[in-house]
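Propose amino acids for all 350 sites.
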């Protein structure tokens, strides 16, 4: 666990350019999307989402697993709930978790047993006001979950069979974090609209959170206490039906946030990765003005620059991005439609 002290971070190195490729995905029900992806290494990865979505209605959970050669569907019929999976994290085949939500709004926590996903209990499961929103796994196998309990606790820890909801941050914000992020130094960060907070193993440090009119925060990269990146999108005020969101790319110094101009301004950013030392690396995005290829952002050492995915015959909307340990590679997942549609199919790039 981190010390809570500011530390010197090596100069920001430039991420090497790469050529992205589309990867085949197994057939399934239409109206599908992948919402998150995680990798334990070059030979094992997981992607989760939903399929069979309808206008105003959730579909069924969807899960894929990568065996080093191809993606395959994971049978989830035994789970017995309709809804979707939205978060996944892992460090190895024995330490992988996925989070889902059913049609009644209840959280489902799944653990990987080596061949499929199994329902797992957790403190507060099924209780009014208790939900899980994100998950991260540390190198030792400890697991961290963002969420909320009825009494305002926001961070759940699991290690060696012991579950603990950590004390609430001092300000006890009324917001619910959208995710949790671990740093190489061992600190645990919660992030979302209106909240950015660090747990160092014994106490919370709260930083000013970003509050947009209709914002979504999809990722946080805490390089240091005074060097943080937030990504997401914000629809702003008013506008016609179908108005696209504006990109959120924010840099924080520990006390304020400032908007940073990136390669495009209309669309969404959906996940940010770090290099092995925790420095900026890549961001996945959807560019409203050029929708038939993913628009990634690469850190060139001083600024975020464009890096494009392959051109497709459909829209390309990437929802998540993850680095592959011990390979230098990445997985990005999403869908092939910009709205609920029977034409929407899972999309995977690397």
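Proposal:
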């Amino acid at each position: 666990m981190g010390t809570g002290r500011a530390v010197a971070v090596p100069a920001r190195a430039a991420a090497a350019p790469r050529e992205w490729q589309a990867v085949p995905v197994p057939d399934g029900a239409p109206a599908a999307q992948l919402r998150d992806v995680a990798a334990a290494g070059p030979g094992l990865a997981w992607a989760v989402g939903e399929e069979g979505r309808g206008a105003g209605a959730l579909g069924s959970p969807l899960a894929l697993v990568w065996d080093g050669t191809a993606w395959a569907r994971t049978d989830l019929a035994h789970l017995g709930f309709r809804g979707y999976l939205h978060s996944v994290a892992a460090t190895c085949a024995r330490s992988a978790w996925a989070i889902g939500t059913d049609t009644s709004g209840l959280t489902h926590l799944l653990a990987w047993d080596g061949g499929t996903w199994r329902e797992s209990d957790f403190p507060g499961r099924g209780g009014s006001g208790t939900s899980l929103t994100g998950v991260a796994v540390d190198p030792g196998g400890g697991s961290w979950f963002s969420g909320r309990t009825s009494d305002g606790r926001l961070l759940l820890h699991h290690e060696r069979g012991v579950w603990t909801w950590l004390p609430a941050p001092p300000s006890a914000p009324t917001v619910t974090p959208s995710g949790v992020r671990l740093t190489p130094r061992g600190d645990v960060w919660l992030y979302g609209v209106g909240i950015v907070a660090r747990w160092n193993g014994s106490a919370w440090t709260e930083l000013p959170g970003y509050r947009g009119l209709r914002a979504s925060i999809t990722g946080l990269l805490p390089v240091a206490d005074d060097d943080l990146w937030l990504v997401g999108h914000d629809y702003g005020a008013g506008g016609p039906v179908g108005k696209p969101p504006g990109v959120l790319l924010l840099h924080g110094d520990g006390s304020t946030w400032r908007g940073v101009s990136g390669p495009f301004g209309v669309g969404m950013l959906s996940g940010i990765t770090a290099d092995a030392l925790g420095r900026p690396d890549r961001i996945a995005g959807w560019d409203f003005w050029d929708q038939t290829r993913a628009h990634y952002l690469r850190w060139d050492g001083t600024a975020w620059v464009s890096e494009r995915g392959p051109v497709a015959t459909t829209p390309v909307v990437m929802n998540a991005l993850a680095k592959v340990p011990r390979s230098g590679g990445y997985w990005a997942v999403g869908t092939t439609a910009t709205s609920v549609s029977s034409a929407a199919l899972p999309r995977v790039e690397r």
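The domain at 33-349 is CATH 2.130.10.10 (Methylamine Dehydrogenase; Chain H). The longest strand covers residues 83-92.
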